[in-house]
């Protein structure tokens, strides 16, 4: 399995990160700085930067690669802010059967003193066959640890997850999403997708995955226009977000704007379904975002978003809404005469959180 694609993206991202740090900091970096899609195994993998979507992708790719190398890979998760002394060394200790280990640590930017002490000690003698992933979003907390890693302690690499600001960078990201799924996408399709979802990388990623799931064959501009055309200002996800939050009037206005801009009812229902099904998966589940993401087949940011969206919802409301989604999906595909009325009815059900 190859995980070193996107060399050009890696070079651009690393150069941008080095420039942003300034000349003094740049001189202290003694380890490779790689883009998210050029991630590779190392005893310590520092995943640094504010872009959670890229970080989740990089960590997921690393996990998949390690598991392809040895299916017996043991994966563990730690939260740096609630860490207690000794947990890291316990997880990294050799097991009876010597399985390789992946230890993922979230929230290093708000780490406890105990974690920082143990992590610095660990760098002095990393465990054999163990990959330690440290996720640090931003800020000065943990600077001594980051400086030690960047200085070469532990033999690590840094995965740079800087915010993607340029359209070209977002197009590179979308292209990588389709490439990972084994699908070809045209340059026009990439431009159209970024035009529709330029403000939210998570929604851009979700749109790419929706196209992969729903549309066979190559992805071209015509297909993107069918699903997401005319939604540079208003997307199906905007309508869904307003309805899920209980803002009925705003959701109807957003729906009308999307339809007037040329959006098709079918992908609008698909956007609702994606969000509601994710909420249903997460509802009632216990554990950290990383743990649930691994169990449910989601990304950690999807778990966090679903938990926020679930405020005010009940299990019965979710069940009622899922039934309404199924009926609306059939309606917009020809089971009823008025697809717009069916969509407005669904918005009402969702905005009421299924209490109808």
Describe the model.
There is one protein chain. The protein has 356 residues and is an alpha/beta fold. Helix content is 57%, strand content 9%. The chain contains 16 helices and 6 strands. A 6-stranded parallel beta sheet has the order 1-6-2-5-4-3, with helices on both faces. Helix 3 (87-92) links the parallel strand 3 (74-79) and strand 4. The longest helix has 22 residues, at 7-28. It is elongated and about 70 Å long.
Q: What is the beta-strand fraction?
A: 5-15%
What is the fold named in CATH at topology level of the largest domain?
Zinc Finger, Delta Prime, domain 3
Please state the CA-atom Rg, rounded to the nearest Å. 22 Å
Annotated CATH architecture of the largest domain? Up-down Bundle
Whole-number count of domains: 2
| Strand order, largest beta sheet | 1-6-2-5-4-3
Calculate the mean pLDDT score and round it.
86
Report the major sheet. Answer: 6 strands, parallel
* H-E string: HEEHEHEHEHEHHHHHHHHHHH
- Continuous helix count: 16
Provide a compact summary of the structure.
The chain is α/β, with parallel strands linked by helices and 356 residues long. It contains 16 helices and 6 strands. Helices cover 57% and strands 9% of the residues.
Features:
disordered N terminus; Rossmann fold; six-stranded parallel sheet; single chain; 9% strand; 2 domains; 356 residues; Zinc Finger, Delta Prime, domain 3
């Amino acid at each position: 399995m190859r995980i070193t694609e996107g060399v050009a993206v890696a070079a651009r991202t690393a150069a941008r990160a080095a420039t942003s740090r300034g000349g003094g900091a740049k001189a202290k970096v003694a380890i490779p700085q790689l883009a998210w899609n050029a991630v590779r195994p190392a005893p310590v993998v520092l995943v640094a930067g504010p872009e959670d979507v890229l970080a989740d992708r990089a960590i997921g790719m690393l996990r998949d690669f390690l598991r392809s190398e040895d299916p017996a890979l043991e994966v563990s998760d730690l939260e740096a802010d609630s860490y207690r002394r000794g947990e890291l060394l316990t997880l990294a200790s050799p097991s009876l059967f010597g399985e390789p280990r992946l230890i993922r640590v979230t929230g290093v930017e708000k780490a406890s003193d105990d974690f920082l002490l143990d992590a610095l000690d660990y760098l002095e003698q990393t465990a054999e066959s163990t990959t330690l992933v440290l996720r640090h979003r931003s800020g000065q907390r943990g600077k001594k640890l980051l400086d030690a890693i960047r200085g070469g302690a532990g033999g690590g690499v840094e995965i740079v997850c800087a915010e993607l600001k340029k359209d070209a960078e977002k197009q590179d990201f979308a292209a990588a999403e389709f490439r990972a799924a084994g699908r070809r996408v045209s340059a026009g399709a990439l431009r159209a997708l970024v035009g529709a979802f330029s403000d939210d990388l998570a929604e851009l990623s979700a749109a790419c995955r929706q196209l992969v799931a729903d549309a066979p064959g190559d992805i071209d501009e015509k297909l993107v226009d069918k699903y997401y055309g005319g939604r540079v200002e208003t997307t199906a996800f905007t309508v869904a977000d307003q309805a899920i939050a209980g803002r009925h009037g705003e959701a109807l206005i957003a729906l009308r704007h999307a339809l007037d801009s040329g959006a098709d009812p079918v992908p609008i229902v698909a956007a609702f379904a994606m969000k509601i099904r994710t909420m249903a998966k997460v509802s009632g589940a216990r554990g950290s975002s990383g743990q649930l993401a691994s169990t449910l087949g989601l990304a950690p940011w999807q778990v966090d978003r679903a938990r926020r969206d679930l405020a005010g919802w009940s299990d019965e409301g979710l069940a009622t809404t899922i039934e309404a989604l199924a009926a609306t999906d059939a309606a917009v595909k020809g089971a009823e005469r008025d697809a717009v009325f069916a969509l407005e009815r669904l918005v009402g059900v969702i905005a009421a959180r299924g209490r109808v």
